[in-house]
């Protein structure tokens, strides 16, 4: 369970940010619990009691009473592992973020796309395994996800092509297989294909070219989404 706290004392921003977060968790197929706090004192009281060990805290900086930066310093005294993302209307405190090892600063109004990439990366690092067990023609095979080039529909099952050119199989639909993969690593590029963004070397016309030279078709319906996902993954890495 991905435990997330949102601390924002302005109701209109809190409601908007909570809505964006829930949409991201649903899209990334993340099992989560999101708790919203209306101010630093409310959060600090719950945090001090130790009711929940949080994985991610989204903090406004400018709040009445203890501001977000002061609150982050208090958090770090007790928890060095939790990820902290500041969501703020000012970058005046940005330099101080190094003191609390902040994951990122995001400006208001919140950019959902940027937050999604940060959440996907943090969640994957914390929870997602780096392998998948395929039931390949009756033989179970453990495959490192980094070795998967692409996945495609093959009749009533899905086929994954690996970096060495071999194939393994999944006895279900491509969409179901995609849902079992780590968030942010794969993207649909065709009705019958999905690619591992980490193993795509370039986008060339109507194809995605993998690191081993394999060309995977990119249909016109997906080309903009693939280009966006490719650039975002490249930037994140």
UniProtKB/TrEMBL annotation:
GO MF, one annotated term: phosphorelay response regulator activity
Domain HTH LytTR-type, residue spans: 142-232
Response regulatory domain location: 3-123
InterPro entries: CheY-like_superfamily, LytR-like, LytTR_DNA-bd_dom, Sig_transdc_resp-reg_receiver
Keywords noted in UniProt: Phosphoprotein
PTM sites of type 4-aspartylphosphate: 60
A Pfam family that the UniProt record links to this protein: LytTR
Functional note: May play the central regulatory role in sporulation. It may be an element of the effector pathway responsible for the activation of sporulation genes in response to nutritional stress. Spo0A may act in concert with spo0H (a sigma factor) to control the expression of some genes that are critical to the sporulation process.
Name this polypeptide is given: Stage 0 sporulation protein A homolog
Organism annotation: Kineothrix alysoides
